[in-house]
DNA sequence: TAGTGGTCTAGACCACAGC
DNA sequence: CTGTGGTCTAGACCACTAG
């Protein structure tokens, strides 16, 4: 860490005290002027260092009172939902996409598309994500053509809708649902998997405009998550 | 926003251009010296503002080249794993905990406890989280008594292990796995639910010391998640 | 090599919350 | 009222890298 900048070193030092438990929640960490003396630097530098800890959620700062070690949150964790292709390739398997169906149809009230509040036509694509030679996930995708008219020009024969959208449209908000189902016979046949399956549903918006809905049925794969102390986020 | 500080206003201004789509991914935002002129302030101020955008993941900065609007990540979302009791009560239902089993047993190699790397005895608790009159989740809990000896004094008859641990032990790291199963007959009977179930496994550590493992089988409830544009996290 | 961002300084004034 | 953190300035030098 000697190559890092001074404020990064200070942040790491103080963060280490907190994560090690030497400074428990509620403990007042040194004042900025004390840290100035300890590190022999300007106040702006220690301020930047301690401010970074506050952004990370490790400390809370109060004028006149000082800076205190924060209590860890339990309610939030960082969920890794990798791109399916990246997930498969990171396992060293070959990725393939097989399109099963493609059509344009008018939006209907109700159903999974309702949260997108689509106005005109939807592009509906169905296909299979394949890892090596085995089915990995079955995907049903709806794309709001009013928001993404260019999508109608893509047949999604060789590129999955998620990959195409990622390259062409930015999203600002998403909602996810994870659930468990017993697959219907058609799904079970497509996945070669008849037991319980994980289902991930994802709705994506850009500025209140519904972009796309995806429903991915996994072959009972497990989704793994890691959470660290106060991972933060607003 | 006129009450906010200048660097916050600059951050909000630039962030607005990006989120609105006026500046698409890949677009080069104004140089720092241009922003200095535009806002009539020192470089340190615009640097702080643009740096905040970089921390949020909205932009990427490259020396000599400039600052560019980043492509949104899809890979991370904030997962809300509320306390089960809080979840049930937030739905307006009465919460209850029913202990089914309690015992102390030596740690065994392998199995779900392995990641905790327990040294001595484990406290094993099994029970049911109940919403109103219906089973909500079946929980199997292991507590590492070497790390939390006080837990042996609690019978967990009227308080669930998660609630007790939350009040008595701080954690620094956790790992989660979500999967789907078809319940075995015993589990199906306890949950009054024979179809596919969601399973959440959670391992919790404090400084490399394994604290507890929990396996919660839900009655096919759905876990919901919300993600915003580049919610960040390291 | 020139220009960008990364870092740092030695000040300053202010808002706010404890005392 | 005092002391803390919040903010800002007008410089400076440096590291990296695109051209």
Structure description:
The structure is a homodimer of 234-residue chains. Chain A has six helices and eleven strands. By secondary structure, chain A is an alpha+beta fold. In chain A, the strands form three sheets. A six-stranded antiparallel β-sheet of chain A has the order 5-6-7-10-9-8. In chain A, a hairpin with a 3-residue loop joins strand 2 and strand 3. The structure holds a DNA duplex (19 and 19 nucleotides).
In brief:
Two copies of one chain form a homodimer. By secondary structure, chain A is of the alpha+beta class. Chain A has helices spanning 6-19, 32-39, 43-56, 84-90, 161-168, 185-191; strands at 28-29, 59-62, 66-69, 76-80, 95-106, 121-131, 134-144, 173-181, 197-206, 209-218, 223-228.
Q: Which CATH C-level class of the largest domain in chain A is it?
A: Alpha Beta
Please give the radius of gyration of chain A in angstroms: 24 Å
Order of helices and strands of chain A: HEHHEEEHEEEHEHEEE
What CATH architecture of the largest domain in chain A would you give?
Answer: 3-Layer(aba) Sandwich
Assembly annotation = homodimer
Low-pLDDT residue intervals, each spanning 5 or more residues of chain A:
228-234
Query: How would a textbook summarize the main sheet of chain A?
Result: 6 strands, antiparallel
Average per-residue pLDDT of chain A, rounded, comes to 85
């Amino acid at each position: 860490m000697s190559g890092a900048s001074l404020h990064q070193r200070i942040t790491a030092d103080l963060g280490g005290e907190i994560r090690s438990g030497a400074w428990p929640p509620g403990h007042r960490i040194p004042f900025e002027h004390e840290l100035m003396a300890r590190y022999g630097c300007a106040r702006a530098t220690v301020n930047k260092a301690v401010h970074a800890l506050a952004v990370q959620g490790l400390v809370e700062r109060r004028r006149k009172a000082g800076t205190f070690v924060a209590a860890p949150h339990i309610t939030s964790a960082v969920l890794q939902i990798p791109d399916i292709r990246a997930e498969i390739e990171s396992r060293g398997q070959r990725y393939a996409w097989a399109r099963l169906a493609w059509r344009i149809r008018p939006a209907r009230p109700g159903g999974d598309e309702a949260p997108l509040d689509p106005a005109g036509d939807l592009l509906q694509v169905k296909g299979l994500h394949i890892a090596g030679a085995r089915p990995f996930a079955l995907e049903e995708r709806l794309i709001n053509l009013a928001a993404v008219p260019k999508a109608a020009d893509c047949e999604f024969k060789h590129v999955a809708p998620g990959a195409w959208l990622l390259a062409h449209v930015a999203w600002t908000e998403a909602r996810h649902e994870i659930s468990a189902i017993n697959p219907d016979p058609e799904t079970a046949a497509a996945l070669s998997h008849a037991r319980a399956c994980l289902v991930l549903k994802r709705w994506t918006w850009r500025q209140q405009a519904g972009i796309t809905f995806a429903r991915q049925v996994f072959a009972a794969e497990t989704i793994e998550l890691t959470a660290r102390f106060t991972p933060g986020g607003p």
